[in-house]
Design goal:
Blueprint lengths: L1 H8 L12 H5 L10 E5 L8 H8 L7 E5 L5 H7 L6 E5 L3 H10 L2 E4 L9 H8 L3 E5 L2 H6 L7 E3 L4 H13 L1 H16 L3 H17 L8
Parallel strand pairs: 1-2, 1-4, 2-3, 4-5, 5-6
Helix pairs in contact: 3-8, 6-9, 8-9
Length: about 220
């Protein structure tokens, strides 16, 4: 935070946003799937809310699929717990290219974290892939999704609310498309070329500052 840096080091600071390579996700080939599909990407640990997602998924229609990308301390336990659920694919670590393809192929990206998120770059990546977002209503995710305008946000840890939101987005194609279109536009605000333009502007302002003359 600028205030922390100013207090510790002095000077003035201007924060810039996290950038993503939007075209890599927008132009990815959609991974084929046999039905309406949700994708989760992240570490399998308690704060990520994986158990909440699995409980909510169990309440969805039988043609729904779930791609679980990543691994972590809960992976073995959760895989064993859902061993009789053929609709869930535990993919482990996959390449960046496959991540983009899976995001492009899924109808919904779900981020059910309970706490501890600082921003949410993976939400932007899903948005760039034209994928609707269902996520926990956390301050970091509200920042990414424009206070929830570009995604469906639900109370963290609420299985009923998460299942309802996922069902609505999967079954209401109009809603899912509206969220995907809004999210794609939002992701554009964080594109790498816009970040580069921001850096150029900042450095131009710095070099015009009289205090910097004679230090080049």
């Amino acid at each position: 935070m600028p205030a922390t840096a100013e207090a510790a080091l002095g000077g003035t600071y201007e924060p810039v946003f996290n950038g993503i390579e939007t075209e890599r996700f927008a132009k990815a080939t959609a991974w084929p799937t046999a039905g309406p599909t949700i994708v989760f990407i992240g570490r399998h640990e308690p704060r990520k809310g994986v158990e909440t997602l699995l409980a909510a998924f169990g309440r969805l229609p039988p043609d729904t699929r779930l791609w679980m990308v990543g691994e972590g301390p809960q992976t073995a336990e959760l895989r064993q717990r859902t061993a009789d659920e053929p609709r869930i694919e535990w993919l482990g670590r996959i390449t960046d290219a496959e991540v983009a393809s899976r995001l492009r192929g899924a109808e919904v990206f779900c981020a059910p974290s309970l706490h501890g998120e600082s921003f949410g770059v993976v939400l932007l990546e899903a948005m760039a892939a034209h994928t609707a977002i269902v996520a926990s209503d956390l301050p970091a995710y509200r920042k990414v999704t424009g206070d929830g305008r570009d995604a469906m946000l639900v109370p963290p840890g609420d299985v009923d609310a998460l299942a309802d939101a996922l069902r609505r987005v999967l079954e209401d194609r109009g809603l899912g498309e509206r969220l995907a279109v809004a999210g794609e536009a939002r992701a554009g605000d964080f594109a790498m070329d816009r970040l580069a333009e921001r850096y150029v502007h900042i450095y131009s302002e710095i070099t015009r500052d009289p205090r910097c003359r004679g230090r080049r």
